Amino acid sequence: MNYLELIENKLKTYFPQGKEKDSLIEKVLIDSMEYSLEAGGKRIRPTLTLIFSEVCGGTIEQALPFACGIEMIHTYSLIHDDLPCMDDDDLRRGKPSNHKVYGEDIALLAGDALLTNAFATVLSEEAVSLVGGEKAAKCGRILAILSGMTGMVGGQVIDLQSEGKKVPIDTIRQMHLKKTSALIKCACMMGAVVGSNNEEHIKIAETYGENLGLAFQIMDDILDVVSDEKSLGKPIGSDAENEKSTFVTLLGLDKCYELVNEYTEKAIKSLDGINGDTTQLKALAVKMSERKN
Ligand code: GRG
Predict the structure, then answer these.
(1) For ligand 1, atom 24, which residue shows the shortest CA distance?
(2) pLDDT in tens, 254-274
(3) Which residue of 102, 130, 207, 231 sits 20 to 30 Å from the alpha carbon of 289, by its own alpha carbon?
(4) Residue 60: its pLDDT value, please?
(5) How many CA within 13 A on the CB side of residue 210?
(6) Ligand 1 atom with minimal separation from the 155 CA
(7) Can you name the CATH fold of 3-289?
(8) Mutate to test the pocket of ligand 1, among 36, 72, 75, 77 (most ligand atoms within 8 A of CB)
(9) Boundaries of every domain in the chain
């Protein structure tokens, strides 16, 4: 089985299936959670957790609950991000966003439940029995810090506060370090904790994840502009006054492609300090820098 299948199969085990699924909570709330969890995400973050665990000396089986935990947090963030009070998006991954199907109230609660269940998952008896209480607690702590106030949620606040303003590149970088890199970094660090809990490995996972996250986000900004140009025939910056500042509006496309390469190289270079086989991590960084969606 490949990483994607392993993650998809494991995620299903955290939800009641078939006949058991007959209470009101399960019909509404769990359907809504599963709708977004199973909506075709690329599973980049959980894949990173699995690979880092292996590279640092652990197993995929040990890392799976932690991989599922981070995907639950990622999914909650997307559901909340699409709500009318945030980005107000009707579509996610080409399908109606969660609140368009289940209503704003259930979408909000599905996000809340995914957030809290992520911690139930990484601190579960299964997770503790696979890696021990110390590693599970450390993963829970890293997950809480990087997804919360000074991590992803903090990044979302910088984003909201920057709306409609021309903000300096440093603020944009800070926003992406928190909003995007924090969870990617977290996925890598939890894998390293599971695999070895060696401080040097955890530091490498942090540097790799941070740089990969920045490259990923800048590529996202590039793809936004390039796909607009293709589908709408709009030249870059044609309605700049209506758009928020991004790496592309502030630095231009050429510089952004350069930055994607620079951060990808930094991510790859950071792996030098690991003895395990880092081929997949290097390939993944290159693949993400060349992605088209
Ligand atoms: C609402 C608390 C809260 C946070 C929202 C993650 C986020 C913060 C907002 C989503 C919007 C966005 C563009 C975030 C940047 C990170 C990013 C590019 C997310 C999409 O990640 P992918 O491409 O998603 O891994 P898939 O669909 O593959 O799962």
Answers:
(1) 41
(2) 999 999 999 999 999 999 999
(3) 231
(4) 98
(5) 16
(6) 8
(7) Farnesyl Diphosphate Synthase (1.10.600)
(8) 77
(9) 3-289
